[in-house]
Amino acid sequence: MQRVAVNLKARAARYEILVGANILPTLGKEIRACVGAATRRIALISNQKVYDLYGEIASQSLRGAGFDVNRWLMKDGERHKSLRSFEAALGFLNQSGLQRSDAVVALGGGVVGDLAGFAAATYLRGLDFIQVPTTLLAQIDSSVGGKTGVNLATGKNLVGAFHQPRLVLIDVDALRTVPPRELTAGWCEAVKQGASGDRRLFDRTVRLLRSGGTNSRQWLNNQRSQAGVCATIAAHCRFKSSIVAGDEKEGWARNDSRSRRILNFGHTTAHALEAVTGYRRFRHGEAVGHGMLVAGELSKNLGMLAAGELESLREAIALCGPLPSADDIDAGELIKAMQADKKSVAGKISWVLLESVGKARIVAGDQISGRTLRTALRDGLRAAE
Ligand code: NAD
Ligand code: GLY
User: Coil, strand or helix: which one is 32?
Assistant: First the structure.
C-alpha cells in the first residue's frame, strides 16, 4: 500500500491518501487510527449500486473497529447532486444523532463524494469526513483536494465549500466493476492532470494506457500491471496534492502555472458542452476530453503550442477510449454557455492553454478573437472522430 501525504502548509493541516489493492477491509482500522478513540458513530453515504458491491465490506470493517454505523443511500446520477439530496443528507445526519466528534464516510464516485463532503462541511458547522472513492475519476481527482458541493438547475457545482477529508482510502480493486465509459472519463481526467502540470505524469499515464488499454479487469488480474496502476493512481494523487497544497482555495487572482486553476484545463469547453446537451450526452470526463482538444487547438493557433505537442495530446486522449460525438453542436451556443460559467473572472471567460504538454498558461478570453475561438471549436470538436 502507498501512502501519499497532503500537506496544507498555509494552515499546517495534513492528511493521508492510502492507495492499494484490496485495502477496503482495513477501512475501519485506518479511520480509527486517524480520528482517535472518541469517535463513536460513522454516517456512511453511498448509493445502492456501490453499496451492493462494497457496502457490506466497508460496514463490517467499520463495526470491527468499534464504530456504530448508520447508512444513507442517495439516488444515483449527476442530477441527484442537488440541493434536494443535500437536504435529505442533512436530515439523515440529524436523525442518526451525529455529534461533533463523529464522522461521515463517502463510499462511491465523485457524485457521492461531492454531496457527502458538502453535508459533512456544513452539518454542525463541520464534521470529520473520509473519502472512499470507487471510480477512477474519483480516485485520481475528486476525492483529493476538498472541493465539495452540489449543482443548481442553472449550472454545475454552483454551491459548495472547501472541506478537506481527514483520510482518503483508495482501493483499486473497486475499478474492476466500473463500466468502460466511466473508465474512459477517468482516464481523460488523468490525461488532463499530466498535460496541465506534469510531463512525466502525462508520459507515465500514456505508457500505462498503451500497454494495458482501458480494460480494468485485465490489468487488475495481472500482478505486475496491478502494481503499475496503483503506482500511477498514487502519482496522480501526489500531483494533485502538490497543486492543492500551494493553492487550496483556487485563488481567482492567481495566473501562474502552479495555480489550482490549471486543473481546469479542458473545462471551459467541457462545462459548455455539458450545459448545452442538458448533462445527458457526456460523462464529465468525456466532455473534458473534447475540451482539451479545443484548448490544444487554441494553444497551437495562438502560436503557443508546437504541432507535435498537440499530436501527443490527441494520441493520449484517443487512448482513453471513444468519446461521444460533439461536432454537431453549435459553436455560438457553446460560446454563450461559456460566458455564463462560474469560472469566468471579472466577466471574462478564462482559458487554461498549453505552452507544452505539462506546462499550462492561463489566458483571459478577451485576448482571443471570436474567429480564432470558432476555428478551434470546429477543429477541436472534430478531432476525436
Ligand atoms: P459518478 O459518481 O456519477 O459515478 C459514475 C457511475 O459509476 C455511477 O453510476 C456510480 O454509481 C457508478 N459507480 C461508482 N463506483 C463504481 C464501482 N466501483 N463499480 C461500478 N459502478 C460504480 O461519477 P464520477 O465520474 O465518479 O464523478 C463525477 C462527479 O465528480 C461530477 O459531479 C463532478 O462534478 C465531480 N468532480 C468533483 C471534483 C472535485 O474536486 N470535487 C473533481 C472532478 C469531478
Ligand atoms: N478538479 C479540479 C480541482 O479539484 O481543483
Answer: helix
Instruction: Report the C-alpha gap between 172 and 2 in whole angstroms.
Output: 12
CA torsion sign for 174, 178, 180, 182 is: negative
- Residues linked to residue 149 through DSSP beta bridges, in sequence order: 160
Distances in whole angstroms, Cα of residue 258 to Cα of each of 10, 71, 139, 262: 15, 39, 21, 7
The pTM for the full model equals 0.96
Is 250 designated active site?
A: yes
The pLDDT-based confidence of 143 (bands split at 50, 70, 90) is very high
pLDDT score of 347 more than 70 = no
Of 78, 250, 333, 355, catalytic: 250
Note the pLDDT of residue 146: 97
Per-residue pLDDT, 345: 63
pLDDT at 125 over 80: yes
Q: Is 284 a catalytic residue?
A: yes
Closest CA to 240 of 19, 1, 11, 12: 19
Nearest of 143, 147, 149 to residue 163 by alpha carbon: 147
Give the closest ligand to the alpha carbon of residue 80: 1
Mutational test site, ligand 1, from 111, 112, 147, 217, max ligand atoms within 8 Å of CB: 111
Look-up of cell digits 502519482: 235
CA dist., res. 360 & res. 299, Å (int): 10
Report the C-alpha gap between 79 and 85 in whole angstroms.
10
To test ligand 1's pocket by mutation, which of 78, 80, 135, 284 has the most ligand atoms within 8 angstroms of CB?
135
CA angle 328–330–333, rounded 5-degree value? 145
